[in-house]
Amino acid sequence: MLLPDFGVASLTQMRGDDWTYPKIRQSVKSGNLIPVKRGWYAVPGANQNVIRALKIGGRLGCLSALKEYGVWVPQTDRDLHVVLGKNAAIPKLESTVFHRYDFLPETVAFSVEDCLRQVMRHHDPETGLIVLESAVQKSLVTPFWAQMLIKELPSKKQRIYRFFDPSSQSGSETRVRLFFQRRGVKVHSQHKTSGGWVDMLVGQSWIIECDSRAFHDNKTNHNIDCHRDLSNFSAGFVTTRLSYPQIWFEWEDVKPQLLGILRKKEHLRLPRPCRTFGT
């Protein structure tokens, strides 16, 4: 049986799963198997990123493999992260990021744990923290394993990871929360108010809601958000909603505005509920 997640397997894997050479040849002839490269086969509709990585001579890893595993991954200029052996030459392909690793797995992609190690080693700490928290949120690794991966890093790189928070629900939340934490601002992730759960509470009374998707078309969710915002405002909280483009494409313009709000120190005041009146 071929790998169910990616639809690609090595000849060694297939032989271990009772694929005989005549059966393989017949499957190739009938179109049920497609040769990828020497010693590797795929089924129709197999994962194309895995196949691209194999043809280049490496394995799918780092951010690309994590995305296939379901981890929340920030958008990047290059669409494919391929991991090569430690002594391999780096090809010149504009759309591909290459990393070297101590070994190549026998499977088509690196494990979640190794992919996290690769991101935490080769990318900036913010990106590493984003994917680490997402992997925990998706139950792909435990909080204990996440802490172990952090301890593997050089002490200098561990500084940002002290803000690791397994309650984060998206990369957008992680980025915004980290912005405040780096400046010594108290933040509560996934805070519950009388209006319901909010992404984060900054200080005593400033609620931040973070959009984790580029596009939205769910009117029901929007209506729920509006009800929650009104309830929280009535309870004395101020809500700021940050869109996906603001967090990921306009972030350098957004940060000074957030700093300006912080300087007013309104977030340090306790919530002051509004008086309610009958109609």
Describe the structure.
There is one protein chain. Helix content is 42%, strand content 17%. The protein is an alpha+beta fold. It has a domain at 167-268: VSR Endonuclease (Endonuclease, Chain A), CATH 3.40.960. The strands form three sheets. The chain has a four-stranded mixed beta sheet with strand order 7-8-9-10, with helices on both faces. Strands 1-3-2 form a three-stranded antiparallel beta sheet. The longest helix has 16 residues, at 219-234.
Low-confidence stretches: none
Q: In what order do the strands lie side by side in the largest sheet?
A: 7-8-9-10
- So, the CATH homologous superfamily of the domain at 167-268? VSR Endonuclease
Shape: elongated
Task: Tell me the structural class.
Answer: alpha+beta
The whole-angstrom Rg is: 23 Å
Largest sheet: 4 strands, mixed
- The name of the CATH architecture of the domain at 167-268 is 3-Layer(aba) Sandwich
Order of helices and strands: EHHEEHEHEEHHHHHEEEHEHH
Protein name: DUF559 domain-containing protein
